[in-house]
Amino acid sequence: MIVSRWLTRPFKARMRGSAAWFEDRTGATELLHKGLYEAVPKKGGWAYALGSATLALILLQLFSGIFLLLDYVPSVTDAFTSLDYLRTSDGFGAWVRGLHLWGSYTLIFVIGLHMVRTFLSASYKRPRELNWVTGALLFFLVLGLAITGAMLPWDQAAYWTTVVVTNIPHYLPFIGDGIRTLWRGGEFVGPITLTRTFAIHIWVLPFLMFSLIGAHLYLLRRHGEFGAWVNYSTDPNEDEEKQIGERIRRAEPPYPTKRIARRYSAPRETVPFFPDQLIKDVVMSAVLIAVIFVMGLISGAPLDEPSNPATLSYVPTPEWFFLPLDQFLVVAPTNPLIAIGVFGVLGIGAALMIFLPFIDRSPERRPLRRPEVIIPALFMAFTVIVFAILGISRLYNL
Amino acid sequence: MKKMSRREVLIRGTGLGMGLIGVMLSVPAVGFLLSPLFTKQKLTWITVGPIDEVPVNQPTAMIAEVPVGTGYPTPPVKRIVYVVKKRDGPTLALSNICTHMQCDVHWDPSLGNFLCPCHGGLYDIDGNNTGGPPPQPLAQWVHRTHTDAQGRTILEIQNQLDEHI
Fold it and tell me: Where are the domains of chain B?
């Protein structure tokens, strides 16, 4: 009865009716509307596109990773062979693997830039402290995914990366050897090492990652995009208090948030996320993915000789993002008592990074007026770069 | 005892039920996760070969097919045994696993040392750590020798080291 009545109506009315029914049952349009028309700061949109580009690249890793699973076998006897087959015989397989590798390189680079941007603009300050904390944890998860991913091909490069990386916990006092054994599935690298690393790479870390991404995006939408201090300037010729009061009155949701420094409650000028910001997001992601697309094809992903623990001439070299830590291994004392201090220094560095919003609590956002955090950060960046340069000169005899 | 309200019983029951599920599921999960700590490596003896030809004071790399001894059965992997003969003292069967990060060290005749390519660790001919980051000497394979029917000295190793590294 209902179907025949529906069919006798004109086509357009039928479609309208169906759309209204779907909207009533799901609220999809309303949700989409809410997502698309939120106010974002007008100035600096290209810099904010680094965040969405990070998300786009993570999704690219998810999809290219799923495709790699179509061929890859996580076993010490077959991992290399399956990727060798993928490289030589399986059509576009080598390209997909190239996308996954260059995607990971680009992702590390872009998430780093995104962090530098939020750091310089002090976007992590009240009320967005937890946006930073979740983001910093995501940064470490990306590094964890990159290093576990480098172990999976089980060629020479992957094998020696596995040996060295899984041996790092050995220097952790008391529990270190236990952690090493659990990761390796025995005292030395063996078949279980690969299956465990594989499980960490494709389930454990991505599961944590997507949970944190959910939290990160929810918090972004809860407090609104901070943008940068340039969006909060006032006209020096007029009464500042009045200007800010005016701005907060006019602010669109989710601005302003309560109980924060009034000056930074709401940006002076905003634009709707769609289409003003989204076009920049899409262009940024498209450019980055184009680079990956080309590099994935022309450079691809290398595959060494099959793993061989009885080698006298192979010189293992770490992935570029692992160079500073590798050089740190050269200079770090291995005495068990000092090792506590070494892990302590690394741990404090990571903790300072994660808990930055709780250390730098002043309302000041302009970078030049925050030397107390900018200078230590520059020092940390400088240390990492020096270690990278020392590592390169040691390994490549420059 | 105070009589609990219906609401209180329901809340406590919910908590108890969730706790019970948690405990039931964590016993096998945690046990499985920690099992490598309690699983013994399967030890085997491997014949490396005759060592009569090994020159004195010149570490010589021999290759042995060593079973991993952990995890599901996999083919043995090739490993290096550095046989070091001395004019006086016992013959050594050094592993070439660096005690720093477990990379493969090799004998460098020009240095007169074992050199690790990863982080530049150095060991002397007896395997004592002499430079770079390694915290302890090279370990030896657990080994023994016997004389075969032709009168040759045959080296055998076990798939374990004599020191914890």
Answer: 1-39, 45-161
Over range A198-213, report the average pLDDT.
Answer: 98
Q: Does B43 touch chain A (CB under 8 A)?
A: no
Query: Which ipTM score applies to this complex?
Result: 0.94
For B64-82, what is the mean pLDDT? 95
What is the model's pTM? 0.94
Q: Cβ of A330 under 8 Å from any chain B Cβ?
A: yes
- Indicate the residue of B80, B103, B133 with minimum beta-carbon distance to A316: B103
Q: Which of A178, A190, A334 sits opposite B135 (nearest CB)?
A: A334
Which strand (E) or helix (H) includes residue B64?
strand B60-66
What's the domain count of chain A?
1
Which one is the CATH code of B45-161: 2.102.10.10, 3.40.50.980, 1.10.10.10, 2.40.10.10?
A: 2.102.10.10
